[in-house]
Design brief:
14 strands; 373 residues; alpha/beta; 12 helices; 3-stranded antiparallel sheet; 7-stranded mixed sheet; binds pyridoxal-5'-phosphate; globular
Length: 373
């Protein structure tokens, strides 16, 4: 939180701090292999991109909450995936989930002006904390169990009493942990704190099936999803949220006033993407084989333990001095990865490797590291 009266100065964007390592990539045939940002490089299905250009939806303003067709497709997907039916009135669109995460604390604070605290996982996607800061709220990290997951017993009752919301993220970025969403929902209900469950990696769950907090009822909880990862659609910007009727209604209404609108053609293409599961299966195989390959490569090259994650498309492993590791990898392998302090001070001894590059680029990295290792 910024102290009252102190102007807010945006900090450097985390990934821009890696720019100084990029020239190392020029030394290699094939150039830099960027495994830092979790941005998909594989294509979305052809039918989805075709729908973008043929929807006729570009001439009018699109509904902020999402077209009926989009909301019905969301409900159909949730029914197939989680065996739940929350109805199209209890879901709504977002312009990708980053803007939802980054602006949510402002709206929650307007709804509950006597509270000022956002609780979020101590090692996590940086926008949970930044959203709180931008709203002038207190951002309070929740410690995590050694194997992952929120340690809900560690939340100070004084912070719980001031909490506008609790974030949970499963599968989690950066570590791929699978959290206990039922326990998070129970904690929120017991303490009167809305729980927002970021489930944008749910299609990429490797241990067991993908789960939603909404399987534990909708009371006091909202699930947040994205087509960025599921359908390699990050450039189009389409996310959505759904759950507790009162919370969703409030957010739908307030977000209309700010012009939070997903472009019409993107909404139309989203229907095609959500109704298709085959391309997700193809993508799942790509990620699993890349994770397996690079697990072996990094274990051999760095002599460290690299566990397979429970979900998501990141390798997250302890290396000690993460910035030194990132620099050595850039120098010796021409590859860029993220030092763990991007995701909170508690992650400072780890690095995150996003296996987002196409298979030939991943194979090239494997070749380079096998040659030097
Ligand atoms: C945990 C988590 N939530 C949300 C997002 C934002 O995704 P998008 O805005 O593309 O939906 C990301 C992106 O990396 C993420 O890792």
């Amino acid at each position: 939180m910024t102290a009252a009266g102190t102007p807010f100065v945006p900090p450097p964007y985390p990934y821009e701090r890696l720019d100084r390592f990029k020239p190392y990539g020029d030394e290699f045939e094939g150039g830099l292999i960027d495994l830092s940002i979790g941005t998909p490089f594989d294509p979305p299905p052809a039918a989805v991109t075709a729908a973008l250009s043929s929807s006729n939806a570009e001439r009018s303003y699109p509904p902020s909450i999402g077209t009926p067709a989009l909301r019905e497709a969301i409900v159909r997907w949730m029914g197939r995936k989680f065996d739940i039916d929350i109805g199209p009135d209890h879901v709504a669109a977002a312009i990708g989930t980053k803007e939802f995460v980054g602006t949510l604390p402002q709206w929650m604070r307007l709804r509950t002006p006597d509270r000022d605290t956002v609780l979020y996982p101590a090692i996590s996607y940086p926008t949970y904390e930044m959203g709180a800061t931008l709203a002038g709220c207190r951002a309070v990290p929740v410690p995590m169990h050694p194997g992952g997951g929120l340690d809900l017993t560690a939340i100070d009752p004084a912070d719980a009493a001031r909490a506008l919301l609790l974030w949970v993220n499963s599968p989690g970025n950066p570590s791929g942990i699978l959290d206990d969403l039922g326990a998070a929902a129970d904690w929120g209900r017991a303490h009167g704190v809305p729980v927002f469950s970021d489930e944008c990696y749910v299609e990429f769950t490797w241990q067991g099936r993908g789960r939603s907090i909404l399987e534990h009822g909708t009371d006091g909880v909202v699930a947040v999803h994205s087509l960025s990862k599921r359908s390699n659609f990050a450039g189009a910007r389409l996310g959505f949220y759904g759950g507790d009727p009162d919370l969703v209604h409030y957010l739908r209404e307030v977000r209309k006033h700010v012009g939070m609108m997903v472009p019409g053609p993107v909404q139309a293409a989203g229907v095609v993407a959500l109704d298709d599961d085959e391309h997700v299966e193809v993508q799942r195989h790509r990620y699993v084989s890349r994770l397996r390959l690079l697990t072996d490569v990094f274990e051999r090259w760095a002599g460290v333990d690299v566990p397979m994650p429970g979900g998501a498309f990141y390798l997250w492993f302890e290396v000690g001095d993460a910035w030194a590791f990132a620099e050595r990898l850039a120098r010796e392998g021409g590859a860029l990865v993220s030092p763990g302090d991007f995701y909170g001070a508690a992650g400072a001894r780890h690095v995150r490797v996003a296996v987002v590059q196409p298979d030939d680029r991943i194979a090239l990295l494997a070749e380079r590291l096998t040659a030097t290792g």
